[in-house]
Structure formats: C-alpha cells, structure tokens
Design goal:
By secondary structure, this protein is mostly helical. 72% of the residues lie in helices and 0% in strands. The chain contains 14 helices and no strands. The radius of gyration is 19 Å and the shape is globular. 27% of the residues are buried.
Length: 241
C-alpha cells in the first residue's frame, strides 16, 4: 500500500469512528499547523483562533472527502485555506478596518510589520487571552453534555434546508429564554418545545441534537467568539446564528 492509499484508508476509517478521527487529526496536527502558518505568515500558537478553525476545517475535509477528489492532503489544504480566508474576511468586516496581517503589496511585508505596533500587540495579547479563556470554558460546558468540538463538526447540518430548520429552532430559543434555561438546568435539549415553536420537524432536530446543544449553549453565557467558530463550522446561508 503506497502512502496516498494509506492516507485514504485512514480518512475512511476516520469517517466511521470518532476515535480514529481524533487519532488521525493528532497525527496530522503538524500538517494543520503548517497550513495555518502559511496563511498567517508566522507559526501559530495555541491561542490563535485560526489554528482552531484550521483543525475544524481538516475534520470537515475528512467528512467531505471522496476518492474521486484526488489527494486528500491537497483537498484538506484547500478547505483549510478557504475557511481561514472566510474567517479573515469576517473579522475585517467586524473590525471595520484593513487587517494589519494583510500584505501591503504582493509578497511584501504586512502593514503590521511596517508599523511600530507595541500598543496593538498588547491589545492583541489581551484578545487572544480572552479567546483562549472562552474556548476553554465552552469546551468544559460541552464536556458536561458528553460532547467535544469534533462531535459538533461531525453532527452539523450539511444541507441548506436542514441548516435553516436548526437556525429557526435557535431563533425560537432566543425568543423564549426559558428554553435556554431548561437546557442549562436539566442538561436536556427541549426538542419538543423547539420543534413546535419553530414549526420544524422534531426528527430533524433529533438527528442534529449535538449541533443544537452547541449553538444553544453559545447563547447562554455570552460566548461571542464561539458563535463565530460555529458559523465557520456550518455558515448559515439563509441567516446567521
């Protein structure tokens, strides 16, 4: 078995087993870090949002890959870069200014590299610290439901119609805070109330229970950064979480 066939075999095993998926991701973490470094033009650290997004994009590539698509690593590389580009554009729109990481000319230094940005570096460090703290807190809350971020990526809706139904249920929960309180109090997703209130299929919500738990949790404690991560996992084409 050549190397490419071995990788494909690992990919298909990861599609069927969460344990195999976790092991595969750990094995290729250097590849993920390398792809992130290419985008950032510097080595990523554990506090970078981009590294988390790249890991999720790699897991997405595992789920979406088919043999006819050619080399898996090439396929994963494209998916990681596309996700990072989407995230960068969203962040620039949110900030309302040109990114300091954007090159000022082709292959030239970024604006941030040309400026004395001591104060900005302090602000960036604070921002990264907040992001890391929020991610750790969210991961801890997911653990209380027996879930991980990999579970959420695996369970997110893949069809526009299904995604729209899930976000209608989210809108219902936001309009009725008692449903969010029920989730955090009992640890159970109020599927019957959400399905009735949003006029969506209960079976649809049951199939995507893990994803629904995650997006509802993201609205219980002001998880602003997490909401952005979930939009990267499954961006709503008909609306926003």
């Amino acid at each position: 078995m050549n190397h490419e066939h071995e990788i494909i075999a690992q990919v298909y095993a990861a599609k069927e087993s969460s344990a195999a998926a976790d092991n595969f991701l750990k094995q290729y973490l250097p590849f993920i870090r390398s792809e992130t470094a290419k985008f950032l033009r510097r080595p990523p650290d554990s506090a970078d949002d981009e590294l988390s997004i790249a890991m999720l994009a790699f897991h997405e590539a595992v789920l979406a890959y088919q043999k006819l698509k050619g080399s898996f690593l090439r396929f994963a590389s494209v998916n990681i870069r596309n996700r990072l580009i989407d995230y960068s554009r969203k962040e620039r729109r949110h900030a309302g200014h040109i990114s300091l990481d954007a090159p000022s000319a082709e292959d030239g230094p970024s604006l941030g590299e040309q400026l004395d940005s001591g104060a900005d570096e302090i602000g960036e460090a604070d921002s990264r610290s907040s992001a890391k703290s929020e991610l750790m807190k969210f991961a801890k809350e997911l653990e209380g439901f027996g879930l991980t971020l990999a579970d959420i990526a695996d369970n997110c809706p893949r069809q526009d119609r299904t995604l729209e139904a899930c976000h209608r249920a989210l809108a219902c929960a936001r309009e009725h805070p008692e449903l969010l309180e029920e989730l955090t109090r009992s640890g159970r997703l109020p599927i019957a109330q959400l399905a009735a209130g949003a006029d969506v299929s209960r079976k649809t919500l049951e199939r995507h229970r893990k994803y629904m738990v995650a997006i509802l949790l993201a609205y219980t404690n002001g998880f602003e950064i997490i909401r952005g991560h979930l939009r990267q996992i499954a961006p709503a084409k008909g609306g926003h979480a």
